[in-house]
Structure to design on (225 residues):
């Protein structure tokens, strides 16, 4: 079993839809959780960062962590074609970046 | 891309040849990282550097070596390229070790034939 699992998609939704992207993990020591967005042929960029459990909102994006279920989610409201990208979850037990484990990514297409 | 330049952007090489990828930064950041990205595996850390001449291994370091002789440059070398090293390689830089601070380059697409 991989440490971090993510549905690879591709996920295709109409513009304006609510998108739910999810990751599961096996290491209960993980406490730092991140979501990255990666456009085609580009490097990943940090989208959201959450420490421990709970929700965090930033504009149309909401990150949710459920440590009891070892499950994290990223919700995108009012999705736009510009949200079309691959979304990577990432997590670690420590603050050091060399300890961050990335999920394989979910490819999202938002159709106008 | 936060002052990071990877070169070359694309390379095709033959099995058994040495290959060096370069990551150049203009941010004067202390930390630099090399990752590979493969379908189904996400990003996996190869090596990283926490200062000039200070490097350490990551999760998938076998077959790779690195060097950092000056702050701005971090080189990744495949001593004898194999087809399993066909991948997209990303460099990342960070001012500190904390896991919210890294910025990624645009990647180098390497094909070993």
């Amino acid at each position: 079993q991989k440490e971090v699992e993510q549905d690879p998609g591709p996920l295709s939704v109409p513009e304006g839809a609510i998108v739910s992207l999810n990751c599961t993990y096996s290491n209960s020591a993980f406490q730092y959780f991140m979501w990255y967005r990666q456009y085609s042929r580009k490097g990943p960029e940090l989208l959201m960062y959450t420490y421990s459990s709970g929700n965090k909102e930033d504009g149309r994006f909401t990150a949710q962590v459920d440590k009891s279920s070892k499950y994290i989610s990223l919700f995108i409201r009012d999705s736009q074609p510009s949200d079309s990208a691959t979304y990577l979850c990432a997590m670690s037990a420590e603050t050091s970046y060399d300890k961050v484990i990335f999920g394989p990514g979910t490819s999202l297409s938002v159709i106008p | 891309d936060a002052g990071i330049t990877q070169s070359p952007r694309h390379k095709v090489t033959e099995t058994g040849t040495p290959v060096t990828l370069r990551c150049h930064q203009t941010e004067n950041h202390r930390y630099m990282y090399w990752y590979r990205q493969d379908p189904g595996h996400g990003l996996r850390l190869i090596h990283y550097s926490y200062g000039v001449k200070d490097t350490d291994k990551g999760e998938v370091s076998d077959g790779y070596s690195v060097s950092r002789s000056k702050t701005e440059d971090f080189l990744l070398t495949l001593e004898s390229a194999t087809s399993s090293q066909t991948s997209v390689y990303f460099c990342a830089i960070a001012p500190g070790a904390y896991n919210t601070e890294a910025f990624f380059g645009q990647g180098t697409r390497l094909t070993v034939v």
The interface with chain A takes residues 1, 4, 31, 33, 39-45, 48, 56, 58, 90, 92, 94, 97-107 of chain B (CB under 8 Å). Chain B has no helices and eleven strands.
